[in-house]
Write a structure and sequence with these properties.
Elements: H1 2-16, E1 21-29, E2 56-64, E3 69-75, H2 82-96, E4 103-107, H3 130-154, E5 157-167, E6 171-173, E7 175-178, E8 181-184, E9 195-202, E10 208-215, H4 232-244, E11 249-254, E12 260-262, H5 268-287, E13 291-293, E14 297-307, H6 313-319, H7 325-339, E15 346-356, E16 360-365, E17 368-369, H8 371-380, E18 386-389, E19 398-399, H9 402-407, H10 410-418, H11 429-443
Helix pairs in contact: 2-3, 4-5, 6-7
Length: about 450
């Protein structure tokens, strides 16, 4: 009899793992009301023309019994500039008493979304009146993010949370070696990360309330000639999952995919195809055996300083004569900053860690982090699942690994022009980021 009772208690405890967590989920439509300048491609020449899909911001809040908290916000936008993230974090702390470390803002980096001012503001020369529309959208987006976070916090309820991982193969390394240097293309021998991490959040009756899934690949299936707003493959994947699981909210987490493109790409049909591929793999993981996730939740957010390679005033004066318009504009911006006494040789960089008990860790990196970061973190921290997101809390530029920086090309060099940054990073960029990664992971007990 005693043995039977003991077995029953063990089985009951195993079934309730994760029950110490509460979860709440919400969504808000962030589709601009009318035509707006799109981000992601410098080749565009006019504002958006309608929408293929609605754009969404979604919030998934977790709270553990000891009071640990995190709210994950995902959105169909190119990136969250620091000014927007700081404003939202300050308002959330005032209104809901959730700390900055308890807020994770991840952008899907869709290239068929609106420009989020002032992110990538050197990408284009805007027509009259367009900047004012973008500033207004920035304000509307901030309000929407605060509201959706509050709604997710407001419907916190006991939940079971489980983790699983799948794989999808459509991401391809885009840094193609050529005799003239690294060019954007397809590199079948380059590093990739095809993992698809999946979190399932269910209520007390086992009904799925939310699905959080990630992938390390640019949302660039749709190219510059597409002027209709959409979430690209990630948006199509989320919509497909919500059709498969009525009543559930699907949130896409962008991982370290800065040097990865969908392959093939270029049409709406391909965006649907990649979205369906990803959704079907997530659904397969949801139907399989998954690992229970529990608390306590521990979260830590810190900034580190990244140095840029030295540039002189004379460098930028020479670049004023560049035949590349964006480079000449960048030079003028740098000279204005120097005249105003502003530093242009360093960037404050956010690194965040979230740990659920001893069952799952999430690292959130700012900027367009290349795939090497996610792969290295997995190597250095084996065992307990660890998910590394890029494009989180601030998207100020590309974040090359030491290898990518040495190789040169678009991500470490040319892209800095469009981001309005002074130039490539100093050689110690990866070392500095990993020093902070190690620090925040130690802070959450990993």
């Amino acid at each position: 009899m005693t043995l039977k009772i003991s077995i029953a208690l063990v089985l009951c405890a195993a079934g309730l793992r994760g029950a110490s967590l509460k979860a709440g989920v919400a969504r808000v439509d962030i589709t601009p009301a009318g035509p707006i300048w799109m981000s992601g491609y410098a080749a565009r020449t006019h504002p958006s023309d309608g929408a293929l899909t609605r754009l969404w911001a979604k919030a998934l809040a977790f709270e553990s019994s000891p009071g640990g908290r995190i709210v994950v916000v995902t959105a169909d936008v190119i990136g969250f500039p620091r000014s927007l993230g700081d404003e939202v974090a300050a308002r959330v702390e005032r209104q809901y008493r959730w700390k900055r470390s308890q807020l994770l803002l991840n952008a899907s980096h869709t290239h068929t979304g609106p420009m989020v001012w002032p992110n990538l503001s050197n990408l284009a020369v805007l027509p009259s009146g367009e900047r004012e529309r973008l500033v207004a959208y920035h304000r509307q987006l901030a309000d929407a993010l605060v509201a959706v976070i509050g709604k997710a916090i407001g419907n916190l309820a006991p939940a079971t949370v489980e983790y699983g991982e799948g794989s999808a193969a459509f991401a391809a390394n885009r840094r193609q070696p050529t005799p003239a240097g690294v060019k954007l293309g397809v590199n079948p021998d380059g590093p990739v990360d095809h993992a698809v991490p999946v979190l399932k959040i269910a209520d007390a009756d086992g009904k799925i309330r939310a699905i959080l899934f990630g992938y390390a690949c640019h949302n660039t299936t749709l190219t510059a000639e597409i002027y209709q707003l959409s979430g690209d493959y990630a948006g199509f994947a989320a919509a497909a999952l919500e059709n498969l699981h009525p009543g559930a909210t699907a949130l896409f987490l962008m991982l370290c995919g800065a040097d990865q493109n969908p392959n093939p790409r270029g049409t709406v049909e391909l965006a649907h195809l990649h979205g369906d591929t990803l959704a079907n793999e997530v659904d397969r993981v949801l139907a399989a055996s998954m690992t229970p996730i529990d608390g306590p939740i521990r979260a830590l957010f810190k900034l580190t300083r990244l140095r840029l390679a030295p540039r002189t005033r004379q460098d930028f004066e020479a670049e004023l004569e560049s035949p590349v318009p964006a480079q000449a504009r960048r030079a003028a911006l740098m000279l204005q900053s120097l005249d105003a006494g502003k530093r242009i040789d360093a960037i404050d960089y956010p690194v965040q860690a979230v740990r659920f008990g001893r069952s799952l860790t999430v690292i959130a990196l700012g900027g367009e982090a290349t795939v090497d970061y996610g792969l290295r973190i997995k190597r250095e921290y084996p065992g307990e699942p660890i998910v590394t997101a890029g494009y989180t809390n601030d998207v100020m530029c590309y974040i090359p690994s030491a290898r990518v920086l040495r190789e040169g090309g678009y991500e470490p060099v040319d892209s800095m022009i469009y981001y309005g940054q002074a130039g490539p990073f100093a050689d110690d960029v990866e070392d500095r980021i990993f020093a902070m990664i190690h620090q925040v992971l130690k802070g959450v007990g990993r």
